[in-house]
Amino acid sequence: MGLFDKKYCDICGEKIGLLGNRKLEDGNLCKDCAKKLSPWFSDRRRSTVEDIKGQLAYREENREKAAQFCITRSFGEDRKVLLDEEHRWFTVTRARDLAEANPDILDFDAITGCRLDIDENRTELTREDADGKDVSYVPPRYEYSYDFFLIITVRHPYFDEMRFPLNSSSVYYEPQHAPMSRSTMNHSKRLSAGRVDPEDCAEYRKYRQMGEEICQRLNEACRQKQPISTVPEGDNVTNEAEQVTSAAERWTCPACGGANTGRFCEYCGSPRP
Fold first, then answer.
1. Which of 111, 108, 86, 89 is nearest to 98 (CA)?
2. Cα 125 off chain centre by
3. Is residue 41 part of a domain?
Protein backbone atom coordinates (compact mmCIF):
# COMPACT_ATOMS: atom_id res chain seq x y z
CA MET A 1 0.00 0.00 0.00
CA GLY A 2 1.18 3.50 -0.81
CA LEU A 3 1.76 6.28 1.69
CA PHE A 4 -1.41 8.13 0.68
CA ASP A 5 -3.68 5.12 0.18
CA LYS A 6 -6.99 5.28 1.98
CA LYS A 7 -6.93 3.78 5.43
CA TYR A 8 -9.83 2.51 7.50
CA CYS A 9 -10.14 2.18 11.24
CA ASP A 10 -9.85 -1.45 12.33
CA ILE A 11 -12.21 -0.74 15.24
CA CYS A 12 -15.17 1.13 13.77
CA GLY A 13 -14.51 0.63 10.03
CA GLU A 14 -14.72 4.34 9.19
CA LYS A 15 -12.33 5.95 6.71
CA ILE A 16 -9.43 7.73 8.38
CA GLY A 17 -8.55 11.27 7.33
CA LEU A 18 -5.06 12.32 6.20
CA LEU A 19 -3.91 13.35 9.69
CA GLY A 20 -6.30 11.21 11.70
CA ASN A 21 -4.50 7.84 11.77
CA ARG A 22 -3.27 6.42 15.08
CA LYS A 23 -0.96 3.52 14.22
CA LEU A 24 -1.33 0.23 16.06
CA GLU A 25 1.04 -2.73 16.07
CA ASP A 26 -1.08 -4.58 13.53
CA GLY A 27 -3.57 -2.04 12.25
CA ASN A 28 -4.98 1.47 12.31
CA LEU A 29 -7.08 3.46 14.75
CA CYS A 30 -9.09 6.60 13.98
CA LYS A 31 -8.88 9.64 16.24
CA ASP A 32 -12.51 9.28 17.35
CA CYS A 33 -11.90 5.75 18.66
CA ALA A 34 -8.59 6.87 20.17
CA LYS A 35 -10.44 9.51 22.22
CA LYS A 36 -12.40 6.73 23.94
CA LEU A 37 -9.24 5.15 25.37
CA SER A 38 -8.15 5.82 28.94
CA PRO A 39 -6.30 9.16 29.28
CA TRP A 40 -3.69 7.32 31.40
CA PHE A 41 -2.96 4.80 28.65
CA SER A 42 0.29 5.44 26.74
CA ASP A 43 1.18 2.13 25.06
CA ARG A 44 -0.96 2.44 21.92
CA ARG A 45 1.79 1.81 19.34
CA ARG A 46 2.61 -1.57 20.89
CA SER A 47 -1.07 -2.55 21.18
CA THR A 48 -2.85 -4.85 18.77
CA VAL A 49 -6.33 -4.33 17.36
CA GLU A 50 -7.63 -6.95 19.81
CA ASP A 51 -5.94 -5.13 22.71
CA ILE A 52 -7.74 -1.90 21.77
CA LYS A 53 -11.07 -3.67 21.37
CA GLY A 54 -10.62 -5.12 24.85
CA GLN A 55 -9.86 -1.72 26.33
CA LEU A 56 -12.85 -0.09 24.65
CA ALA A 57 -15.09 -2.83 26.11
CA TYR A 58 -13.63 -2.06 29.54
CA ARG A 59 -14.25 1.67 28.99
CA GLU A 60 -17.94 1.00 28.32
CA GLU A 61 -18.18 -1.02 31.54
CA ASN A 62 -16.39 1.82 33.32
CA ARG A 63 -19.06 4.26 32.09
CA GLU A 64 -21.64 2.44 34.22
CA LYS A 65 -19.44 2.86 37.31
CA ALA A 66 -18.93 6.55 36.49
CA ALA A 67 -22.70 7.03 36.41
CA GLN A 68 -22.98 5.37 39.85
CA PHE A 69 -20.06 7.28 41.37
CA CYS A 70 -21.12 9.21 44.47
CA ILE A 71 -18.59 11.84 45.60
CA THR A 72 -17.97 11.73 49.34
CA ARG A 73 -14.62 13.56 49.36
CA SER A 74 -12.90 15.89 46.93
CA PHE A 75 -9.24 17.01 46.88
CA GLY A 76 -7.43 19.42 44.59
CA GLU A 77 -8.26 22.44 42.45
CA ASP A 78 -8.18 22.14 38.64
CA ARG A 79 -7.77 18.37 38.43
CA LYS A 80 -9.45 16.70 41.38
CA VAL A 81 -9.05 13.43 43.23
CA LEU A 82 -12.58 12.25 44.02
CA LEU A 83 -13.49 9.51 46.47
CA ASP A 84 -16.61 7.38 46.66
CA GLU A 85 -16.16 5.80 50.08
CA GLU A 86 -19.41 3.83 49.87
CA HIS A 87 -18.23 1.85 46.82
CA ARG A 88 -14.53 2.21 47.80
CA TRP A 89 -13.78 3.84 44.45
CA PHE A 90 -11.67 6.82 43.39
CA THR A 91 -11.04 8.78 40.22
CA VAL A 92 -8.90 11.68 39.00
CA THR A 93 -10.60 14.15 36.68
CA ARG A 94 -11.35 17.75 35.74
CA ALA A 95 -14.91 16.86 34.72
CA ARG A 96 -18.01 17.85 36.64
CA ASP A 97 -20.26 15.41 34.78
CA LEU A 98 -18.63 12.04 35.45
CA ALA A 99 -21.17 10.02 33.47
CA GLU A 100 -20.41 12.03 30.32
CA ALA A 101 -16.63 12.34 30.78
CA ASN A 102 -16.19 8.67 31.78
CA PRO A 103 -12.98 9.02 33.84
CA ASP A 104 -11.37 5.76 34.93
CA ILE A 105 -12.99 4.53 38.15
CA LEU A 106 -10.61 2.45 40.25
CA ASP A 107 -11.05 0.45 43.45
CA PHE A 108 -9.17 1.53 46.55
CA ASP A 109 -7.56 -1.93 46.48
CA ALA A 110 -5.93 -1.08 43.13
CA ILE A 111 -3.70 1.53 44.80
CA THR A 112 -0.11 0.37 45.35
CA GLY A 113 1.35 3.72 46.38
CA CYS A 114 1.07 7.48 46.26
CA ARG A 115 3.77 10.13 46.42
CA LEU A 116 4.30 13.84 45.81
CA ASP A 117 7.06 15.03 43.46
CA ILE A 118 8.15 18.68 43.57
CA ASP A 119 10.09 19.92 40.53
CA GLU A 120 12.39 22.88 41.17
CA ASN A 121 13.84 25.16 38.51
CA ARG A 122 16.28 28.03 39.10
CA THR A 123 16.76 31.19 37.02
CA GLU A 124 19.52 33.70 37.72
CA LEU A 125 18.42 37.29 38.24
CA THR A 126 20.47 40.11 36.74
CA ARG A 127 20.69 43.87 37.06
CA GLU A 128 21.53 46.63 34.61
CA ASP A 129 24.92 48.28 35.10
CA ALA A 130 25.95 51.85 34.28
CA ASP A 131 26.56 50.89 30.63
CA GLY A 132 23.09 49.36 30.25
CA LYS A 133 24.36 45.77 30.28
CA ASP A 134 22.78 42.93 32.23
CA VAL A 135 25.22 41.74 34.89
CA SER A 136 25.04 39.27 37.75
CA TYR A 137 24.54 40.28 41.34
CA VAL A 138 27.38 39.63 43.77
CA PRO A 139 26.75 37.12 45.17
CA PRO A 140 24.42 35.71 42.46
CA ARG A 141 20.67 35.91 43.02
CA TYR A 142 18.10 33.44 41.77
CA GLU A 143 14.37 33.08 41.31
CA TYR A 144 12.96 29.62 41.92
CA SER A 145 9.89 28.03 40.39
CA TYR A 146 8.10 24.92 41.61
CA ASP A 147 5.65 22.47 40.10
CA PHE A 148 3.84 19.85 42.15
CA PHE A 149 3.01 16.42 40.72
CA LEU A 150 1.05 13.64 42.36
CA ILE A 151 1.92 10.09 41.31
CA ILE A 152 -0.56 7.33 42.13
CA THR A 153 0.74 3.86 41.30
CA VAL A 154 -1.95 1.26 40.64
CA ARG A 155 -2.65 -2.31 39.56
CA HIS A 156 -4.55 -1.97 36.30
CA PRO A 157 -4.54 -3.85 32.98
CA TYR A 158 -3.97 -0.72 30.86
CA PHE A 159 -1.77 1.57 32.97
CA ASP A 160 0.24 1.43 36.19
CA GLU A 161 0.66 5.10 37.02
CA MET A 162 -1.51 8.22 37.23
CA ARG A 163 0.74 11.30 37.22
CA PHE A 164 -0.80 14.77 37.18
CA PRO A 165 -0.05 18.34 38.32
CA LEU A 166 -1.65 19.85 41.40
CA ASN A 167 -0.90 23.46 40.39
CA SER A 168 -2.16 24.94 37.12
CA SER A 169 0.77 27.42 36.93
CA SER A 170 4.25 27.39 38.44
CA VAL A 171 4.79 28.71 41.95
CA TYR A 172 7.54 31.36 42.01
CA TYR A 173 9.74 32.16 44.97
CA GLU A 174 12.57 34.67 45.28
CA PRO A 175 14.65 34.51 48.48
CA GLN A 176 14.87 37.75 50.40
CA HIS A 177 18.25 39.45 50.32
CA ALA A 178 19.44 41.79 53.04
CA PRO A 179 20.99 45.05 51.78
CA MET A 180 24.81 44.94 51.71
CA SER A 181 27.16 47.69 52.84
CA ARG A 182 30.66 48.14 51.39
CA SER A 183 32.21 46.76 54.58
CA THR A 184 30.35 43.45 54.18
CA MET A 185 30.44 43.11 50.39
CA ASN A 186 33.75 41.24 50.20
CA HIS A 187 32.63 38.84 52.90
CA SER A 188 29.29 38.32 51.11
CA LYS A 189 31.05 37.14 47.97
CA ARG A 190 31.99 34.02 49.89
CA LEU A 191 28.41 33.35 51.01
CA SER A 192 25.55 31.76 49.16
CA ALA A 193 22.97 34.08 47.66
CA GLY A 194 20.43 34.19 50.46
CA ARG A 195 18.65 31.51 52.42
CA VAL A 196 16.61 29.31 50.08
CA ASP A 197 13.56 28.01 51.95
CA PRO A 198 10.42 27.80 49.79
CA GLU A 199 8.40 27.11 52.95
CA ASP A 200 8.48 30.91 53.33
CA CYS A 201 6.10 31.03 50.34
CA ALA A 202 2.42 30.52 51.26
CA GLU A 203 1.52 29.12 47.82
CA TYR A 204 4.33 26.57 48.03
CA ARG A 205 3.07 25.43 51.43
CA LYS A 206 -0.49 25.19 50.13
CA TYR A 207 0.35 22.75 47.32
CA ARG A 208 2.79 20.74 49.43
CA GLN A 209 0.16 20.28 52.13
CA MET A 210 -2.48 19.46 49.50
CA GLY A 211 -0.30 16.75 47.99
CA GLU A 212 0.58 15.27 51.37
CA GLU A 213 -3.08 15.21 52.41
CA ILE A 214 -4.12 13.38 49.21
CA CYS A 215 -1.30 10.84 49.61
CA GLN A 216 -2.21 10.23 53.23
CA ARG A 217 -5.90 9.72 52.44
CA LEU A 218 -5.27 7.38 49.48
CA ASN A 219 -2.69 5.34 51.37
CA GLU A 220 -5.14 5.01 54.27
CA ALA A 221 -7.94 4.04 51.87
CA CYS A 222 -5.97 1.22 50.27
CA ARG A 223 -5.10 -0.20 53.70
CA GLN A 224 -8.68 -0.15 54.95
CA LYS A 225 -10.89 -3.17 54.39
CA GLN A 226 -14.65 -3.27 54.10
CA PRO A 227 -16.08 -2.57 57.57
CA ILE A 228 -17.75 -5.58 59.20
CA SER A 229 -20.93 -4.82 61.11
CA THR A 230 -20.78 -5.68 64.80
CA VAL A 231 -24.08 -4.12 65.82
CA PRO A 232 -25.93 -6.07 68.53
CA GLU A 233 -29.18 -7.60 67.34
CA GLY A 234 -31.23 -5.50 69.79
CA ASP A 235 -30.01 -2.26 68.19
CA ASN A 236 -31.26 -3.12 64.68
CA VAL A 237 -34.53 -1.19 65.02
CA THR A 238 -32.75 1.98 66.17
CA ASN A 239 -30.13 1.74 63.43
CA GLU A 240 -32.72 1.14 60.72
CA ALA A 241 -34.62 4.25 61.83
CA GLU A 242 -31.40 6.29 61.76
CA GLN A 243 -30.62 5.00 58.25
CA VAL A 244 -34.08 6.01 56.99
CA THR A 245 -33.63 9.52 58.44
CA SER A 246 -30.12 9.80 56.96
CA ALA A 247 -31.31 8.66 53.52
CA ALA A 248 -34.13 11.22 53.59
CA GLU A 249 -31.70 14.07 54.33
CA ARG A 250 -29.11 13.04 51.77
CA TRP A 251 -29.30 14.18 48.14
CA THR A 252 -27.14 13.85 45.04
CA CYS A 253 -26.09 16.97 43.16
CA PRO A 254 -27.37 16.84 39.55
CA ALA A 255 -24.45 19.01 38.37
CA CYS A 256 -21.45 17.08 39.70
CA GLY A 257 -22.81 13.91 41.31
CA GLY A 258 -21.61 14.80 44.81
CA ALA A 259 -23.41 13.44 47.88
CA ASN A 260 -24.71 16.18 50.18
CA THR A 261 -26.99 16.86 53.15
CA GLY A 262 -27.08 20.69 53.21
CA ARG A 263 -28.90 23.26 51.09
CA PHE A 264 -25.99 23.68 48.66
CA CYS A 265 -23.53 21.23 47.10
CA GLU A 266 -20.24 21.38 49.00
CA TYR A 267 -18.31 20.45 45.83
CA CYS A 268 -19.69 22.79 43.16
CA GLY A 269 -22.05 25.14 45.05
CA SER A 270 -25.23 24.18 43.19
CA PRO A 271 -28.48 24.55 45.22
CA ARG A 272 -30.38 21.49 46.40
CA PRO A 273 -33.05 20.61 43.79
1. 89
2. 32
3. yes
Is-above-0.70 flag for pTM? yes
d(CA 52, CA 10): 10
Higher pLDDT, 118 or 232: 118
Contacts of 167 (CB under 8 A, 6+ apart): 77, 146, 147, 148, 207
Output the CA angle 156-162-163, nearest 5 degrees.
Answer: 160
**Residue 72 to residue 252: CA distance in whole angstroms:** 10
- Pairing outcome for strands 251-252 and 259-260: antiparallel
User: Is 34 part of any domain?
Assistant: yes
Domain containing 21 equals 7-64
Question: pLDDT tens across 33-48, in order?
Answer: 999 999 999 988 899 9
| Count of domains forming the chain | 1
Residue 230 lies in a domain: no
| Backbone angles phi and psi of 146, in degrees to 5 | -135, 140
Q: Tens of pLDDT along 83-134?
A: 999 999 999 999 999 999 999 999 999 999 999 999 999 999 999 999 999 9
Quote the Cα angle for 216-109-147, to 5°: 40
Q: Which residues pair with 71 in a beta bridge?
A: 258
Nearest CA to 16 among 8, 25, 24, 26? Answer: 8
